[in-house]
Amino acid sequence: LDALIHQVLAGxxxxxxxxxxxxxxxxxxxxxHLVNFAQGEMAMFSTYIAWSLIxxxxxxxxxxxxxxxxxxxxxxxxxRVIIRPVENAPVLSxxxxxxxxxxxxxxxxxxxxxxTMKTFPSPFPEQPLFGNKFMSSxxxxxxxxxxxxxLLLWAFFRxxxxxxxxxxxxxxxxxxxxxxxxVGWMLALGWGLAAAIGSVAGMMVxxxxxxxxxxxxxxxxxxxxxxxxxxxESPGGAVFGGFLVGVxxxxxxxxxxxxxxxxxxxxxxxxxxLIVKPSGFFGKVHVTRV
Amino acid sequence: MRRYALTGYAVLLLVACALPFFVSEYRxxxxxxxxxxxxxxxGLNILTGYNGQISLGHGAFYAxxxxxxxxxxxxxxxxxxxxxxxxxxxCLVAGFLFGLPALKLEGLYLALATFALGVSLPQLLKYHHxxxxxxxVQGIVITKPDAPEFLGALGLAxxxxxxxxxxxxxxxxxxxxxGWNLLRGRLGRAMMAIRxxxxxxxxxxxxxxMVKSLTFGVSAMFTGVAGAxxxxxxxxxxxxSFNIFLSLTFLIGIVVGGLASIPGAxxxxxxxxxxxxxADEISKAAPWAIFGLFLIGFTYLMPMGIAGAIRLGLARLxxxxxxxxxxxx
Lengths: 290, 329
What we know:
The complex is a heterodimer.
Chain A: H1 2-32, H2 39-55, H3 60-83, H4 91-113, H5 137-159, H6 161-171, H7 173-178, H8 183-209, H9 216-230, H10 235-256, H11 262-276
Helix pairs in contact in A: 1-5, 1-8, 1-9, 1-10, 2-3, 2-4, 2-8, 2-9, 3-8, 5-6, 5-8, 6-8, 9-10, 9-11, 10-11
Chain B: H1 2-18, H2 25-50, H3 59-75, H4 80-102, H5 108-126, H6 131-134, E1 140-141, H7 149-153, H8 160-184, H9 186-196, H10 198-203, H11 208-234, E2 236-237, H12 244-257, H13 262-279, H14 286-301, H15 305-321
Antiparallel strand pairs in B: 1-2
């Protein structure tokens, strides 16, 4: 049973990371009805920036917040420069542009930092917190950071005028424009926020999986699964989905199918959810008008 | 126009036949790969270009074809040429079966599902219960076929690379003819009708579900045949050569070559074979950076790809030639 508890808790810790990336995906989906295939690579790129800053002698938390800020700006710039021109293009063009972004970020990072794995420091102490034997302090810390991010985000959307404007722009762009909300900029802000959340996820996952240009491939897949399980339009659902997928992945990997097929769990989940319940647990069902 | 097109294809075929006698063995091998990629790209183009279903995981079917060929040659002692139809048939079934659930998925969601397939594929191939057949991480090494004896008796001594090239060329011509006929026929028209407006197609009596699954199957079959040829040409299959970047390479091939264009498959294949070779000299990471820039550039500036640009150029030229006559459009 100890092993099971351990796997569930470890699953919750990685689940928190999936939840963050899934949340970033949902943010962009809500605003534009697009799934950002480059989300993982954007997070990976941000994490490399953080690595450079820390290696240059910056204290961890300084580098952390600077990276989050940088990622925000980076996300806004990407939306303005690269995504904007294909805003109203067919799905295929948009997917192609996302894929282009993915391979460019991946290869440029490989170009600058080489493909060798790097260790990434964890801000949390080495020895387990509170003498528990189930979770390392990094896992607890990562989960805590995820929850803080979620809370901040919720508060932002719930209590600030800007958050309200962003929600309005996502829900009904035409009417929002009529009441004076700059919808285009709200989309860009959404991208910036998504990139910032992604960078937090990247910095939290890097100490576990090590830093290399392909580190987010698996994470992105689980995040897709998480977002779909929760319903791709529901932020709360994405978080729930993230934790669920994390636990499922760990428990199934440890006891049922072995570590070798962990990614197949994500594949089966994605296809399964899409077929059985495309709107996920918390999503809304849409009816298309002919 | 049709006569020009026919002469054009005849000349192209002649050039293709003469090619291995004028270039080095290594170049011959590269052109063999171009032909193989062009079959795979035609397969993906049938699905994405003509039917509008986005697949980011076509490397999976390429891998299934490759493993089919390798396992049949390695375990069952099949001759290399006999593995091609088997690989095609297996992929047809696999693609049809994957297409059935994929039916319910549109646009973005299908892209997601196939992306997941592409990412998780190497892990599936490494699965230890399949190791007996797949050889696990090590993969399978197969031998390169020799040119058949009777050619030597006819006084046409070909080395292995040249023979492989001609064998691949033969398969390519067959597959392209097949694809061309298919797309002109009832099924092809149904595919395009669904791409352009699936609701209208349905009301016109097109069985959307059947056509879409079939398209998936046919597309997978083309890609699987290419995979089998690829395994024979490279003489080696291993899980990590079929990662997500292979699938993305195919996507790049059809976008750059030209969506919904048969010659586009050939342009795309030339692009994905030779551009990385040139870019490799700058840096190991450069090919993908350049691929990415090309993808964005083509999407913004030339959404119909090289094939579209050529068509446009030809149309301009011919219009100039007919300038003396009043233009109705």
